[in-house]
Each structure stands twice: as C-alpha cells, then as structure tokens.
Amino acid sequence: MTAKSPYIVGIGGGSGSGKTYLLNQLAQRFSPDLLSIISQDNYYKSESDCEFLRDEEGVINYDHPDSVDLDRLVEDIVKLQAGVSIQVKEYIFHASNKEAQTLTFHPTPLILVEGIFTLCHPPLTNLFSLTLFLDAMEEVRLERRLTRDLRERGYDRTQIMEMYEKYVSPMYQQFVEPMKLESDLIIPNNKDMGKAVEVITHHLEKAVGKNYYLY
User: Fold this and answer.
1) Angle 19-27/194-211 helices, nearest 10 degrees?
2) Pick from 11, 37, 162, 185: most CB atoms within 10 A?
3) Are 4 and 211 in contact (CB under 8 A)?
4) Which residues have CB under 8 Å from 66's CB, separation 6+?
C-alpha cells in the first residue's frame, strides 16, 4: 500500500520559550523510526547572503526572519512528505567548538519542525498538520536566554543584553508574537509544562496511529 502523509507539527515561540525542552521530552517518548526533528537553526543563510541585514554599526541582524532560508526549509519538508530523505548542513553557533556535521533525515510518520520563525512563513505553515506556540513572559525568556548564552555561546552579560534589546525583543514583537493567536495551541511555559507535554504526547500518538506508513 502507498504510504500515507506524515503528521507534521510546527513548533514556534520566542527565544527561551522552551522549544528545545519540549523537543527533548517528545524525543524521549517516540522512537527514532517514528520521529524526525527538523530545526530552523540549520537553515540560517551565509553571512554574504545577509549583507542587507547589517545595521549602521555593521552588525547583521540574525533575529530577523530574512536571515533564515525558510524557502529551502519548505523544499526539504515537501521532500520528506514525498518520502524522500534530505541532507542538511548543521549550523554551529558562536564560540562553539563543535565541527559542523551533515545531518541526514529520513521520512518518518511524525515530523516536528521547530524554530523561532517556523510559524511566520505561510508556505511553511501550510504544510503543518498542527501548530504549537510556546509562550512565556518576557522576563522568563530573557533569564533563560542569559543562562544559555553565558554557558554555551561565549557571550558576556553586556553583549547578551545589548543584542536582546536591539534585536531579539523588537523582532519578537514584530514577527513572532503575532503568530501566537494564529496557532492551533498556545502552551504557557513560565514554570512547567509537564501536563502540556503529556497532552501533546497523547495527541501525537493518536495522530501517528492514523498516519502510520502502511506497506
């Protein structure tokens, strides 16, 4: 029999809203042959392709959705829908000692597409079976971002605050937050979203059951 279409979930929300936590929780609940996780982060454009986003100080605004090749992300999701595997070059953030890998993704019954701007691009959102918006108060998101960037990305507190005030916060308000009320589900995550994870897991288990590949 012909394979049915995968169930594709778009997961959006601001920096520090808990997208990575949600993905880690779901990854523990579904086997790799059932679940693929596609990150918007691996679709950032090259520096030369983002020259138009430089500000008056010569800094590229990577918090603008145009810094991400969302059209290429659309193309890859369509391929997975059609049963075709894809390869994506891993994006390495500032100050990481990791070496970029080429990641291979095979078609699976359940596909999670996550990132700050995944709900901001209609050609992409039109592919989603379900959209989730992770919501947290600004002070909570900022504190989480501070903790992460100090520990993982080699920035000091002054740099983090400057980037947040100049780029992160205004871009969130302009492009990301308006998508909250366009989403199928809004998940508050100021403290804990354990119950929400269980509800989402139950829903996805039913969805995978309905859309499982039959041969």
Assistant:
1) 50
2) 11
3) yes
4) 50, 52, 53
All residue ranges of the chain with pLDDT < 50 are 1-2, 213-215
Burial class (CB in 10 A: 0-12, 13-18, 19+), 130: middle
Contact between 204 and 112 (Cβ < 8 Å): no
pLDDT of residue 197: 95
pLDDT value of residue 99 = 78
Instruction: Please list, in sequence order, all residues whose beta carbon lies within 8 angstroms of the beta carbon of residue 90, skipping any fewer than 6 positions away.
Output: 42, 98, 100, 101, 102, 103
Instruction: Indicate the residue type of 128.
Output: F
pLDDT in tens, 31-51: 989 999 999 999 999 999 999
State the first-to-last Cα distance of the chain, in angstroms, to the nearest integer.
Answer: 5
- Cα 116 to its chain centre, rounded Å, is 5
pLDDT for the residue 209:
82
Helices (H) and strands (E) in the chain, counts: 7, 7
Helix (H, G, I), strand (E, B) or coil at 61: coil
Q: Quick one: pLDDT at residue 3?
A: 58
pLDDT in tens, 137-149: 999 999 999 998 8
**Of residues 107, 118, 135, the one with CA closest to residue 42:** 118
Grouping H, G, I as helix, E, B as strand and the rest as coil, residue 185 is strand
